[in-house]
Amino acid sequence: MKKFLFVFASVFGGLLLIAALVFFLWISFKNGIIRQREDIDAEWSQVENQLKRRADLIPNLVNTVKGFAAHETEAITAVAEARARLGGGGSIADRAKAENELSGALSRLLVVVENYPTLKADQNFRQLSDELAGTENRIAVARRAYNEAVRAYNTKIKQFPGSLLGMAPCEYFEIAEADKAVPKVEF
Question: What pTM was computed for the model?
Fold first, then answer.
């Protein structure tokens, strides 16, 4: 009888130990997914900081262009309207669409600027253009970091055992196809 109790206690203890190990591994895995989700939120915050920086530069850029090319109202109005649409919250896809519209409007405005050599030579315009270019680079870096965090998270929740949690994947922040195209330069 003692031998039976010893075997039973050993088996029960072993099963309890295995169950505890599985439980702690599961908790560790779940906490890892939560940590990755927090990383995504932190990276998105960096993207938003850079997008805000760009949005703050736009009024100064538009006012500088207005001073030299006031009759180019179509391009100026397009930038102002695209910037105004940024205020809405919505999903990341909606925000990406609004940001892509703003990028397109800014590109068209900068094409208009090419027709005004005095504007291109203006110190204030050059400084704003340089700041805008730097900000665009920062946006690209922040977007890449965000998308990498999303990729790692989405991969983890789609693979076993993450797929058991039933967590929804996060959206990527992608640029429009038109913005991916290399601009054609003609001389």
Answer: 0.77
